[in-house]
Amino acid sequence: MTTTSIDDIQLAYDDVGSGFPVVLIHGYPFNRSLWKEQVEALSSSYRVVTPDLRGFGESDTYEGPATMNRMAQDVAGLMDYLGIDQAVIGGLSMGGYVALAFVKQFPSRVKGLVLADTRAQADTEEGKQTRHQQAEKALSEGMAGIADAMLPKLLTPETVSKRPEVVKRVRDMMLKTKPQGAASALLGMAEREDQSEFISTIGVPTMIVVGREDAITPLADSETMNSKIQHSRLVVLDNAGHVSNLEQTEHFNYALMKFLERVAA
Ligand code: MLT
Known about the structure:
Elements: E1 2-6, E2 9-16, E3 21-25, H1 36-42, E4 47-51, H2 68-82, E5 87-92, H3 94-105, E6 110-116, H4 125-141, H5 144-154, H6 157-162, H7 164-176, H8 179-190, E7 206-211, H9 219-228, E8 232-237, H10 244-247, H11 249-263
Parallel strand pairs: 3-4, 3-5, 5-6, 6-7, 7-8
Antiparallel strand pairs: 1-2, 2-4
Helix pairs in contact: 2-3, 4-8, 5-7
Bound molecules: D-malate.
């Protein structure tokens, strides 16, 4: 792990392997360890950079909304620091919101896009209110209640009952998240722009991947993105929920490798 100063914070990241750069952005309320198996699978052929977004993992927390645009600027700042002009940018869930904010702000720096278990729409008014309540809950009670409530929505019932190691991994990531970091990201997600129209202007090859049983960003959201993005391909993973890279690691990695062979040769 290394840290560097980006704008007003210290950002932690891993930078492993060599080859065409691939930047993988974690979701909420996780950290860069979400991508451990992808780093292992890709780093013999690619340079894989995994940041801890502001407020998460070993990066500094930040008071106030950590907007998706701000997080995307942090990623661009990290790429500048690492001398990376262009990369394949991938994100899971909130990481996908950040990836969309990135390609909107820095289109020439994106060679290809991976949108995993994510969506283009903004929150509904009700959704925004829930984010604000969750932010207050995180700050007043810590992460345990949030982790318990989220867990059954993140993983399939089968994973929850039969794969205790995956459940523990996901739960531990959530419990390690600092309440202030979670609260800032919740407020940032509540303010995020609707990218539903923007995505039809994306010009780079895009892989959309989703767990068939994703309860947070359902398959229909990925199908909508796939119908709007010009050069996209949809991969649906059976027996996977919202954290499809952990529940179907082998299939996820296979799809990712195939996509990278095509895009980042
Ligand atoms: C995530 O996994 O990043 C979040 O669940 C996304 C969200 O809450 O919209």
